[in-house]
Amino acid sequence: MGKWTIEALGTDKVIIGMCHFLPLPGDPSFDKKGGIEKVIEAARHDLLALQEGGVDAVMFSNEFSLPYLTDVRTETVASMARIIGELMPDVKIPFGVNVLWDPKQSLNLAAATGAKFVREIFTGVYASDFGLWNTNCGDVVRHQHNIGAEDVKLLFNIVPEAARYLGDRNIIDIAKSTVFNTKPDALCVSGLVAGAETDSQILKKVKEAVPGTVVFANTGVKLNNVEEQLSIADGAIVGTTFKKDGVFENPVDVTRVKEFMDRVKKFRENLKN
């Protein structure tokens, strides 16, 4: 239980900090005057703040490529590869990638950069803010092996933000069948949107349903609920909480990261005792 997180990321009850890229070339909100250099420098600031604050791993994502695509264009992936390549000398901890919302492109980026994990929507059919959203996990996993990315861990988001499962199935049935049919490395349980708290009761039910699978709290883990969430989950993916004033659009605040990680480290110590 949680074993691969110890081997790949160095700990159980792991905290993965989000490094959100500003809008990229081709995105509607891309700052053409500031150019890709502005995106790189903002990403470097957030990466260094997350590392100094003590997170266990970092995940790079094109969070501000709004509105998102489910068939991501080449210029987006190329830009993300450029940014990560520029940051590589500064990366001191394990990292993953998330190309929203395209699992094949996430794996392509992981293979190109040496990422240890990807987070994506791999399974299900959804009614979403960006239209009917379908997936093909079998095709994606075969692509993973074809490009030599079989060691990349797959984090399955089974409660997509801003989307609803088309089939009338509860989260427990989804978790069980996802684990049986697709053998994910982890399940990510979310709130409705980025920064929204993951319901601890749902988190608990999912973990109990698939005790042999790593389960992450995917959104809304904050200073005041981190112990409760980590008492159930094997780890958490944290974005908004680490931002200045806890505002999604702001840069990462190293003081907030340190305060949060100090609490996490105390929680881990208490588990050992």
UniProtKB/TrEMBL annotation:
<dbReference type="InterPro" id="IPR011060">
    <property type="entry name" value="RibuloseP-bd_barrel"/>
</dbReference>
<protein>
    <submittedName>
        <fullName>BtpA/SgcQ family protein</fullName>
    </submittedName>
</protein>
<dbReference type="InterPro" id="IPR005137">
    <property type="entry name" value="BtpA"/>
</dbReference>
<dbReference type="Pfam" id="PF03437">
    <property type="entry name" value="BtpA"/>
</dbReference>
<comment type="similarity">
    <text>Belongs to the BtpA family.</text>
</comment>
